[in-house]
Design a protein that fits this description.
The protein contains 5 helices and no strands. The protein is mainly α.
């Protein structure tokens, strides 16, 4: 049995590891490696956002009738992270270590707070509200998200 509360936190850790790898490349000033590592990180973040926004959040909202609650806040935070990802991409293209480091620090804080809310509050709520649908989604995420 795989539930969103079991699968998605593992993907959070995977994205965290990719983030660190890209940041380490930027700190070394290896911009070719940074570009590659950052793109891998960005694609995994997009896959994670899509899993939640396309599948998990709509299922939770349909099951609970709650569309202005926690899922709305998580979508808002995803948009904030997308903006920061675009800023990191620009810093990477410009080989701007100082800008990359500053934006990365902001993104790291936002990701940590966001992940804690999802893992401790929203994912358990989804597991409970979705019943068997939670198992189906957990299996789907386990099969499609890179670990």
């Amino acid at each position: 049995m795989s539930l969103p509360s079991q699968v998605l936190p593992h993907h959070h850790r995977h994205c965290d590891d990719l983030f660190v790898a890209a940041e380490e490349c930027a700190q070394r000033g290896d911009w070719a490696a940074t570009a590659s590592a950052f793109e891998h990180f960005r694609q995994q973040m997009k896959a994670h956002f899509d899993a939640e926004e396309v599948f998990l959040f709509p299922a939770f909202e349909a099951a609970t009738g709650m569309s202005a609650g926690p899922t709305q806040m998580m979508r808002h935070e995803h948009e904030q992270m997308r903006t920061l990802l675009a800023q990191l991409a620009a810093a990477c293209e410009e080989h701007d270590s100082e800008s990359y480091a500053g934006v990365a620090e902001t993104l790291l804080m936002l990701m940590q707070q966001h992940n804690m809310k999802e893992e401790n509050i929203l994912y358990p709520m989804c597991d409970q509200a979705l019943g068997a649908e939670a198992e189906r989604l957990g299996e789907k995420f386990g099969a499609t998200l890179e670990k």
